[in-house]
């Protein structure tokens, strides 16, 4: 696995952010924060301070301290992360403006002095109360989703799958006899489907879950897989869309990771120049664990990042 | 653990009960012909239904389902005005809540409708709309 690892760095200045270069084409950057590791009240105040009034209000409206904290960290993470790339001198997290596209997907509203070319930075965030993540790409749509590994599903897994997932996905889950494994595979599948829909940016109803199948190529063929098949890192994640034949599998690539031993993270990014005949080479992924303004640690290649499928 | 000193927004059930009163007071409205003045010629009372406000029982059932799905502490206020997002529901929770509502009320909710539900009241209103269609 080709991974970049920067030196571990500590910053004691309260407003410093390590500047960083945009990811190369086909490369993805992933930044994450664990709320439990952010304990300083003054740091949280700093995060609140970089938000505009409307975002601050949204954070404070959350019901419950834990929810307020993760909501705050989500906004702080996205602002500080984008600021690091110093696009067109947008290096102040406070001055970034955001808007939603037609379907509600958040995007940066770049302030230009001149012109018409939007900077190539794309981002997407996802958060649970115990982990907040932000993915960044260059010139490629991106969607990410994180879920706690041990998240409880209130409904029967197969009932849920029959209601919301595609037929192939139901078959895949139904073939798993161990309920714990079935639940975890369900969660993995959910994160992958969410990441795809978020990458498309058309909203939940723009690509209803039933209208596409996510499967592990090389595993589904010829009937039901064994547990060993499920752990094949080499197997590729692909998406088949029933409704939209123009949205080819070859347009999207997926990675599925286990983060910090506690969460599944799915990343879906647009592939460019992937025509027929081109070998499917997954892109590079670099992962940082961060406490914005305080410390960044590159965790790619460590136990904090276990690649389940995708990035090789 | 660090805590916020700003006071949190609290939701009151006032507007929900206000709507209820609105319905019942309109429900008591009646028309009468004063043609020949005889009280026996009065038309039966017309019951107006404010179609955008769901019954309190429906709202309460939605609240129960939401409480259970999100495992909310008993002291967390949940009413018609409560937004799912501010209660901490993520997309998987929202889908599970919708599924719970489908099971409880015997209805089927399409993705477009599910996406437009942001509050408990929205969910209750949608449920009643779907029940009426049945």
From TrEMBL, chain A:
Task: Please name the top-level EC class of this enzyme.
Answer: transferase
Checking InterPro entries in the record gives:
4-PPantetheinyl_Trfase_dom, 4-PPantetheinyl_Trfase_dom_sf, AASDHPPT_N, P-Pant_transferase_sf
Provide the 4'-phosphopantetheinyl transferase domain boundaries: 141-217
> What EC numbers are recorded for this enzyme?
2.7.8.7
Q: Which SUPFAM superfamilies match?
A: 4'-phosphopantetheinyl transferase (SSF56214)
- Pfam family of the protein (one): AASDHPPT_N
> Does the record bear Transferase in its keywords?
yes
Record-annotated 4'-phosphopantetheinyl transferase N-terminal domain positions: 44-133
Instruction: Supply the alphabetized keyword list.
Output: Transferase
Q: What name does UniProt use for this protein?
A: holo-[acyl-carrier-protein] synthase
From TrEMBL, chain B:
What family is this protein classified in?
Belongs to the acyl carrier protein (ACP) family.
InterPro entries attached here?
Answer: ACP, ACP-like_sf, ACP_chloroplastic, PKS_PP-bd, PP-bd_ACP, Ppantetheine_attach_site
For whether the record's keyword set contains Transit peptide, the answer is: yes
Return the PROSITE patterns for the record.
CARRIER, PHOSPHOPANTETHEINE
Which is a Pfam family this sequence falls into? Answer: PP-binding
Q: What does the protein in this record do?
A: Carrier of the growing fatty acid chain in fatty acid biosynthesis.
Where in or outside the cell it occurs: the entry states: Plastid, Chloroplast
Identify the keywords attached in UniProt to this record, alphabetized: Chloroplast, Fatty acid biosynthesis, Fatty acid metabolism, Lipid biosynthesis, Lipid metabolism, Phosphopantetheine, Phosphoprotein, Plastid, Transit peptide
Q: Indicate the segments forming the Carrier domain, all copies.
A: 56-131
User: What is the protein's species of origin?
Assistant: Rehmannia glutinosa (Chinese foxglove)
Q: What is this protein called?
A: Acyl carrier protein
Q: Report the main location listed first in the record.
A: plastid
């Amino acid at each position: 696995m080709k991974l970049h690892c920067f030196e571990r760095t500590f910053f004691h200045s309260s407003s410093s952010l390590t500047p960083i270069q945009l990811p190369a084409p086909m490369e993805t950057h992933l930044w994450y924060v664990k709320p439990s590791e952010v304990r300083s009240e003054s740091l949280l105040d700093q995060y609140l301070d970089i938000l505009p009034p409307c975002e601050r209000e949204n954070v404070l409206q959350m019901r419950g301290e834990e929810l307020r904290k993760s909501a705050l960290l989500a906004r702080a993470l996205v602002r500080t992360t984008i600021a690091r790339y110093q696009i067109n001198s947008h290096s102040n997290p406070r001055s970034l403006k955001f808007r939603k596209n037609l379907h509600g997907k958040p995007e940066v509203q770049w302030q230009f002095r001149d012109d018409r070319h939007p900077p190539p930075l794309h981002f997407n965030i996802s958060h649970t109360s115990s982990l907040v993540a932000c993915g960044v790409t260059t010139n490629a749509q991106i969607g990410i989703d994180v879920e706690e590994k041990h998240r409880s599903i209130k409904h029967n897994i197969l009932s849920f799958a029959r209601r919301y997932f595609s037929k192939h996905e139901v078959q895949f889950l139904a073939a798993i006899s161990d309920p714990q494994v079935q639940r975890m595979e369900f969660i993995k599948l959910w994160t992958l489907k969410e990441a795809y829909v978020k990458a498309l940016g058309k909203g939940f109803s723009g690509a209803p879950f039933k209208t596409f199948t996510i499967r592990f190529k090389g595993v589904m063929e010829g009937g039901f897989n064994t547990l060993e098949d499920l752990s094949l890192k080499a197997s590729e994640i692909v998406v088949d869309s029933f409704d939209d034949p123009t949205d080819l599998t070859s347009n999207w690539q997926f990675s599925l990771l286990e983060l910090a031993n506690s969460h599944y993270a799915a990343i879906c990014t647009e592939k460019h120049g992937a025509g027929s005949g081109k070998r499917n080479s997954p892109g590079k992924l670099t992962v940082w664990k961060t406490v914005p303004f305080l410390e960044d640690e590159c965790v790619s290649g460590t136990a904090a990042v276990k690649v389940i499928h995708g990035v090789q | 653990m660090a805590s916020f000193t700003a006071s949190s927004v609290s939701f009151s059930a006032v507007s929900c009960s206000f709507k209820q009163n609105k319905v019942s007071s309109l429900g008591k409205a009646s028309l009468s012909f004063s043609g020949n003045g005889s009280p026996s010629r009065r038309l039966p009372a017309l019951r107006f239904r404010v179609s955008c406000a769901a019954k309190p029982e429906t709202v309460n059932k939605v609240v129960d389902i939401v409480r259970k799905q999100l495992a909310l502490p008993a002291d967390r206020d949940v009413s018609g005005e409560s937004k799912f997002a501010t209660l901490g529901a993520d997309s998987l929770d929202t889908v599970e809540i919708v599924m719970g509502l489908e099971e409880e009320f015997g209805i089927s909710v399409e993705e477009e409708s599910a996406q437009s539900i942001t509050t408990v009241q929205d969910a209750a209103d949608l449920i009643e709309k779907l029940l009426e269609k049945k």
